[in-house]
Amino acid sequence: MTTTTHPVGKGAPHRAAPARAVLGRRSARAALYAVLTLGVIAMLYPLVWLLTSSFKPADEIFGSVGLLPRTWNPGNYADGWTAADGSTFGRPLLNSLIVSAGAVAGNLIACSLAAFAFARLEFRFKRVAFALMMVTIMLPAQVTIIPQYILFHSLGWVNTYLPLILPKFFAVDAFFIFLMVQFIRGIPRDLDDAAALDGCHPGQIYLKVILPLLTPALVTTAIFTFLWTYNDFFSQLIYVSQAELYTVPLALRQFVDGTGQSEFGPMFAMSTLSLLPTLLLFVIFQRLIVDGISTSGMK
Fold first, then answer.
1. I need a surface site. Which of 51, 121, 158, 229 has the fewest CB within 10 A?
2. What are the tens digits of pLDDT across the range 122-174?
3. How many Cβ atoms sit within 10 Å of the Cβ of residue 255?
4. pLDDT tens digits, one per residue of 72-123
């Protein structure tokens, strides 16, 4: 009589391999989440510090080690909102919104028209013009600021918002033109041909076919133009010197005094308030921002 013996634990190695793979994936995922959490903390810490510092008395802002204030001082917001000349911080906020809205309108109109011309129309020296337009992206703003200032000064535009708004209507932001060109190139030309067969000329094709499909790129252009214009300090410092025309960056600069009389508490309070428009804009349109970038060749 013969007996058959089976090795004990024959399937153990096969079961251990998937278990080790699952454990490895979980460890990698945990490490990824840990790195992302540290990145989020590093990015949000300056904002949290700004928010808490806006409630600190002057002697605690730079002298205290802790993040939270020992004594909460909401009076910084009241002091920062009312300026020394009796005006309020609402005027710079309104001025920034006016300048940003004008820049957004200019970029949407001019850059979309230029992008349509580069992507759909045929004209002489088209490739050369597009190459020259792309070169301007690498041109530092400091190179052209003096000629521009001389030109705008001769036109009598200094101490007005015209130098900050009007150039946008001449498609000076090559980055957004390139963004829209990449998007338009992804739209099938069959739509243009079908519209042409129906009797549409290029202007009607732009308005009725391209422009409605260009919405994600237009939203991306509008949001980035608003953010860059709203946060711009250098250009506004060059062209605006009257206090009633000050925008948010210039108004915040008034809280810093080179003689040592700086009011950091009110400045941090107004800095916190000035972040609200940009945060609301991003929260409302964040999905369209991602769609516009991912579908326009920027990825």
1. 121
2. 899 999 999 999 998 888 888 889 999 999 999 999 999 999 999 999 999 99
3. 20
4. 888 888 888 886 556 788 899 999 999 999 999 999 999 999 999 999 998 9
82 φ/ψ angles, rounded to the nearest 5 degrees: -100, 120
* Calpha distance 179→148 (Å, rounded): 25
Rounded Cα distance between 144 and 235, Å, is 11
CA 54/CA 276 separation, integer angstroms: 14
Q: Which CATH class is domain 83-294?
A: mainly alpha
Q: Which of 277, 268, 276, 281 is nearest to 81 (CA)?
A: 268
Which residue, 228, 230, 219, is CA-closest to 294? Answer: 219
pTM reported for the whole predicted model: 0.81
Under 8 Å between Cβ of 248 and 92: yes
Q: Is pLDDT at 64 greater than 70 in this prediction?
A: no
pLDDT, position 56 = 87
Contact between 92 and 243 under an 8 Å Cβ cutoff? The reply is: no
Measured at the CA of 201, the angle between CA 195 and CA 207, to 5 degrees, comes to: 75
